[in-house]
């Protein structure tokens, strides 16, 4: 089964055209093994050569934009994934610590609310936090199915080893794919909960947010769930410290993207002349992360034979991290057909988990 999404952004309305192939859920049938179903998706993902060309093309396209920008998904090669794991343990980076504390307290309540189902995690990484959730589902189902979706194969391999050691009854299904490639799976996994933790949703622009939840809603069925982790709006000092740690790990994480461009695309960027910057835009409720070039440099993209001159002082945007208010977010999600069943937060209201249930949608679909 495949899906394509066409977007017509006409002022204040986004129209979605979702086209499914002739393979339906009924044709797949409940008797098919989940691993067999997933094999079809694995074989349809990009080859190494195609992925390399896609990286080159996306970098070239982003450097042609004004302001210049790079897609944050390319931060997560093997080295980037390792650095992000280190960021999650930093004292300034409250997000992972706080979300883990919340999950520790409420995982059993979430499992009791939803009952047995298939867990599909988008951006699973090494599944470190998700172990808490899986442990709760192991208590109500002997062999829960868990589909871990991530663009980093090394992170998935590490997650599979960790889950295999700590929760051997979990049926772990790694899928190295983008969110969009994975979403058609939702309709083939029976009753499902989509797990989207870490406030990754904050990395999406307004339009990307809308497209994402259109796609999730279109691929889930009535009664399915979403568990969404979101970082909440708070004081500027706490937010900016989380993305400008004193040990400089976040700077290494951002610079690694340019190191990857050097390694994979034949560039020769002087990383010592690339400065990490992260500031909070209070009006937009978002952290804005970029690099500033301290001296003029050329970025050469060998697969495309393309060159880009970056002047001293020029910035390249690498990531945003939007922050949310609970009331505003719940009303927005309702427009996509998701009812907020439960909200879990910490005592300081730094972070929240929203358990959403797929209801009828009122969006304009064609």
Molecular structure report:
The chain has 366 residues and is of the alpha/beta class. It has a domain at 3-48 and 91-234 and 326-358: 3-Layer(aba) Sandwich (Rossmann fold), CATH 3.40.50.150. Helix content is 38%, strand content 27%. It has twelve helices and 15 strands. It has helices at residues 25-28, 34-44, 48-64, 78-88, 94-114, 130-138, 153-166, 179-182, 206-219, 236-242, 249-265, 326-334; strands at residues 3-10, 13-20, 68-69, 118-122, 145-150, 171-176, 192-196, 225-231, 274-281, 286-293, 297-301, 306-310, 315-322, 338-345, 351-358. The strands form four sheets. It has a seven-stranded mixed β-sheet with strand order 6-5-4-7-8-15-14, sandwiched between helices. A hairpin with a 4-residue loop joins strand 11 and strand 12 (306-310). Helix 5 runs parallel beside helix 6. Residues 1-32 have low confidence and may be disordered.
Shape: globular
Share of helix, binned: 25-40%
Q: Return the structural class.
A: alpha/beta
Q: What is the CATH first-level class name of the domain at 3-48 and 91-234 and 326-358?
A: Alpha Beta
Q: H/E order of the elements?
A: EEHHHEHHEHEHEHEHEHHEEEEEHEE
CATH architecture of the domain at 3-48 and 91-234 and 326-358: 3-Layer(aba) Sandwich
Beta fraction of the residues? 25-35%
Q: Enumerate how many helices there are, as a single number.
A: 12
Number of separate strands: 15
Q: In whole angstroms, how far apart are the ends?
A: 19 Å
